[in-house]
Amino acid sequence: MATAQQKALSSYRRRMKQQGIVRLEVRVRKDDVALMRDVVSALDDPDQANDARALLRERFGTAGTSGLKALLAAAPLEGITIDRDRDIGRELDP
């Protein structure tokens, strides 16, 4: 590749990186190509992006990755007593 082409490609990749855009290669069946293009278009469209992301995360997102704190906050704790007797230790012989 010529030096001018390398420089142009590097500049383009740098601009895309600054915008938060990454290149992704996906292999899909021939019948699904149009569907995948529609999904990508929906994610790129500002009017549809939030709805599309929410729908995809709801259906295919990984659940349970929020951590222990969120898990405990979401746990149903009605009717559970968490009190315990105070243990002051054992008596020691002097």
Give the topology, please.
Layout: H1 3-18, H2 33-44, H3 49-60, H4 68-74
**Helicity, as a percent range:** 40-55%
Main sheet attributes: strand count, strand direction, barrel closure: none
Protein structure class:
mainly alpha
The residue-averaged pLDDT reads 87
Note the gap between the termini.
Answer: 85 Å
Percent of sequence in beta strands = under 5%
Q: Report the order of strands and helices.
A: HHHH
The count of strands amounts to: 0
Describe this structure in words.
With 94 residues, this protein is an all-alpha fold. The chain has a domain at 8-61. The protein contains 4 helices and no strands. The chain starts with a helix and ends in a 20-residue tail after the last helix.
Can you give keywords for this protein?
94 residues; 4 helices; 0% strand
